[in-house]
Amino acid sequence: xxxxxxxxxxxxxxxxxxxxxxxxxxxxxxxxxxxxxxxxxxxxxxxxxxxxxxxxxxxxxxxxxxxxxxxxxxxxxxxxxxxxxxxxxxxxxxxxxxxxxxxxxxxxxxxxxxxxxxxxxxxxxxxxxxxxxxxxxxxxxxxxxxxxxxxxxxxxxxxxxxxxxxxxxxxxxxxxxxxxxxxxxxxxxxxxxxxxxxxxxxxxxxxxxxxxxxxxxxxxxxxxxxxxxxxxxxxxxxxxxxxxxxxxxxxxxxxxxxxxxxxxxxxxxxxxxxxxxxxxxxxxxxxxxxxxxxxxxxxxxxxxxxxxxxxxxxxxxxxxxxxxxxxxxxxxxxxxxxxxxxxxxx
Length: 346
Ligand code: GN1
Ligand code: MG
Prior knowledge:
- With 346 residues, the chain is an alpha+beta fold.
- The protein is built from 12 helices and 9 strands.
- A 5-stranded antiparallel β-sheet has the order 1-2-3-5-4, with no helix packed on it. A two-stranded antiparallel ribbon has the order 6-9. The chain has a two-stranded antiparallel ribbon with strand order 7-8.
- The radius of gyration is 20 Å and the shape is globular.
- Magnesium ion (MG) binds at residues 28, 30, 208, 227, 229.
């Protein structure tokens, strides 16, 4: 989006000073995010992807409830909530599109890749603190922004449907991968086993614990987590699992040289220690004892989601070439296999 495409109403609704520049902030596969620099201040401006989030008002309500909770009980906690318009709206609709404006927190930055295991520690501490502080928040008041988002059985079923409806060429290209999917079905059974335990508790989870969702200061210390669109009731393995999926390996889900995929012991230790910094007193002993399985659950789930999207002609994740989702799924299976081999995790 260039300056010209910025809805003119935005400036009026938020009473923005003169805009100097608009910069596209890439990274995510879902929303469109921009940095707006005005003569006075900087902002983060976001257009919500309503294909993925069909009810943006629900997310807005979640954000307002959480902001109120933090304001009432943990006023020192930095919760980056959207800015209200002059009509006190924290989300605006213009011609069927939904937008939000956030403050840009001065002196912070985000990294799209981890630069050290210490950053993994800092990030894990931030995600742990977020859920830990919300331990007394009434979890059922939090809306579900995407139903069955981290539900592995559901994701497996979606993949099966996609397989049944896929064309022959796609099935052929994914045959070897499909065998691995079936061979690892035990992870779905383990997931079902976990969520039906009484001591596996529904908590407010962030559900997108990638490193670029952590604000860091100049010394690369964690300052806050951001991007609460998928913040909803969930289970202990969601954020830990996404951190293991995206922090343990030196290369991302986009890497097609699969020989570069490995899991790093010092990063595992950093995530584990960082997460338990605040969550140790919150998690049940069952959850703590099974925390290391989080990586497998979420990595397998992500592989299923990429494979499903490949079979459905890349409708969900942004793709630069037709086989990208298949490559992402293969990448995630390499990672899963590396995790399963690591004795330091289990
Ligand atoms: C999507 O776009 P991003 O990075 O915030 C997805 C996550 C996936 C991730 C994989 C709402 O997140 O669940 O793990 O892509 N978010 C949604 O890169 O589907
Ligand atoms: Mg996101």
